[in-house]
Amino acid sequence: MSARGEFSSRLGFILAAAGSAVGLGNIWGFPTQVASNGGAAFVLVYVILAFLLAYPVLMAELIIGRATRANMVDALGKISGSVVGRATGIWGFITVSLILSFYALVAGWMLAYFLQTMAQMLSLDTVSSWLTGDSVTRNILFCAIFLSLTAGIVTGGVSKGIECWSVRLMPTLIIIIVALIVYVTFQAGAIDGWKAYLLPDFSRVLDPALLISAMGQAFFSMSLGVGTMLVYGSYVSKKERLPSLGAYVALVDIGVAILAGMLIIPAMYVALHNGVEIFTESGALIEGDSLIFTVLPSLFETMGGVGVFVAFAFFALMVIAALTSSISMLEVPVAYVVENKGVGRKRAVWLLTLTVFIISSVIALNMSHLFGFVITLTTKYSQPLLGLALCIFVGWVWKRDSILAELKQGNEGAQHSLFWKIWPWYLKFVCPVVIVLMFYLSIA
C-alpha cells in the first residue's frame, strides 16, 4: 500500500465514491423533479443522460486521479504541464470548500431535527422547540457539530477513516430507505404517490425543460467537477478496471436516487391525504427545504405515536446521506494541504475544518444575502465550468497514449474495449458541447 493511502477493497471504493455522490440533493431534489417532470419518463431520461454525460466525466476524474496519484491541484498540473492546470485545481479546491460551507449548515439542520425526535420521545418540549426553531445560535452550533463528525472520520485517512465508515454508513442508509418505503407504501394515499412517480408521461420526454433538469441532476448528483472523484480515484489500486468501477458507482448513485423517489413522493401524497398541503401556489410540488422541514414533519405529526419513530429514521437517513458526501468534500482540500504543503493529516483536517466553519458562520450570520448566493455561485456557475475544464484537459491536452497506458494497468486489452473506442472522442467532442449548452440554458 502506498504511503498516501489506498482503498483496501473494490467494495470500499464503490461505497465511498457512491456515498460521495449520494447526498441531500438525491434525497430532496431528485424525487420532486421526477414527479414534476413526467414521472417515469423523467427517470428514463435521467438514467440515459447519467451514462451519456455524467459517466464520461466521472471516468475522466477517476483516470486522472489514479494516473497521477495526486490531489486535484498537482494532478491537473501534471497532465496539463502548465500553471493553468494548477490554477484550475485551486479553483476546484475553493469551490468544494464553499460548497461544504453551506452544505454543513443544511446538514446541521438535519442533525438538529434528528435530535428533536429524541427530545420528543423524552417529552422535552422546550428543547424540542429550540431544536426546530430557526436561530443563528442553533445553526452555527449544529454546523460545528456536523463538521466535527466529518473531520473525525477524515482524520482516520483513506482505509481506516473514509472507507471504514462508508462501508457502514451506505448499507445503513439503504436499509433505512427500504424500511421507510415499506412503511409509507401501506399508508392511505401512498398509491397516488406511486402513480405520480412511476406512470410515465412520454409526451414530456423531448420537453427542453425536462431535458435540462435531467442533465443537471445527472451531472451534479455524482459530485463531478470539484475533484472529489479525482481524489478518490487517486486512492484506487492499479489492479482495478476503472471503467467497470465507474459504472458501479454510477449505478449505485442512480439506484439510491430512484429509491429516494420511491420514499419521498408516496410520503408526500400520504401527507396530502392527511390534510397537509404539498403543492405551491403555481401547482408544482413543494421541494427543497420546505419539503424536508415543513411538509414531512407535518406528515409525521399526523401519524400518531408511530410518527416520532418514522421521523427519527428519516432524519437519521438525511444525516447519513449528508455525512457520506461531506467526508469526500473535505478530503479534496485535505489531500492538497497534506501532499503539497507537507502538513500532517490530523492538523490539516482540523485547520481546514475550522476554515470551513468560519465561512459557514459568516453565511449563517448573513443568511438572507449569502446563502442563496454561495449556492448559485458554486453549483450553477462554478461546478459546470470545472466539469468543462476537466473534459478539455483530458480530451484535448493530456496525451492519449498516457490515458491508454493508465487504463491498461487494470486491463491489458484496454485498447480493444468498447469503452476505449467510444469514450475518448465522446469526452473530447460531445461532453463539452452538452455541458456548454446546459450551462447556457441554466443561466439564460
UniProtKB/TrEMBL annotation:
Cellular localization per UniProt: Membrane
Residue stretches spanning the membrane: 12-31, 43-64, 90-116, 136-158, 170-190, 210-233, 245-272, 306-327, 348-375, 381-398, 425-443
Record keyword Transmembrane present: yes
Pfam family, one: SNF
UniProt membrane topology term: Multi-pass membrane protein
UniProt keyword Transmembrane helix present: yes
CDD domains: SLC6sbd_Tyt1-Like (cd10336)
Keywords (A to Z) from UniProt: Membrane, Transmembrane, Transmembrane helix, Transport
Cited NCBIfam families: Na_transp
Protein name as catalogued: Sodium-dependent transporter
Originating species: Aliiglaciecola litoralis
Lineage: Bacteria, Pseudomonadati, Pseudomonadota, Gammaproteobacteria, Alteromonadales
